[in-house]
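Hi C.,

You asked whether I'd gotten around to modeling the 122-residue construct. I have! Everything is below, sequence then structure, no commentary in between.
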Amino acid sequence: MIQKKDPARICANCVKGSVVAVNNDILCSINGIVTPDYSCGKHRFSPEIISYRNKSNKCIECKHFIINYEKDVNGNHEIGLCQLFSVREFNGSEKNACSKFVKKPLGEVKTKVNPIGKIADI
């Protein structure tokens, strides 16, 4: 019989920690800045990590998905393209994520695609 492994007790999946976008370290409310693999006695699993197995990720949640704000007509901000694979635009909330999926950081700078095709910060 195959036994399921429990997720590791590290700061990267703790409720008390949040990712620092500059260098991917964790800002812990107890210990300050720590490495993602650090763990302390006050660790509490994040509900997001626990329910991660049941969730189907979409392209719009990936950091490689670029939203095109200029072609968005209804204000949903779901039309864009993938930096890795796509040259045509699609609705990121409808398509399931690929094997290269990386979750967007919470404080990510929003970008848009210019008509020329260059990426610009908003």
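If it helps when you're writing up: Residues 15 and 47 are 8 Å apart (CA to CA).

Thanks,
B.
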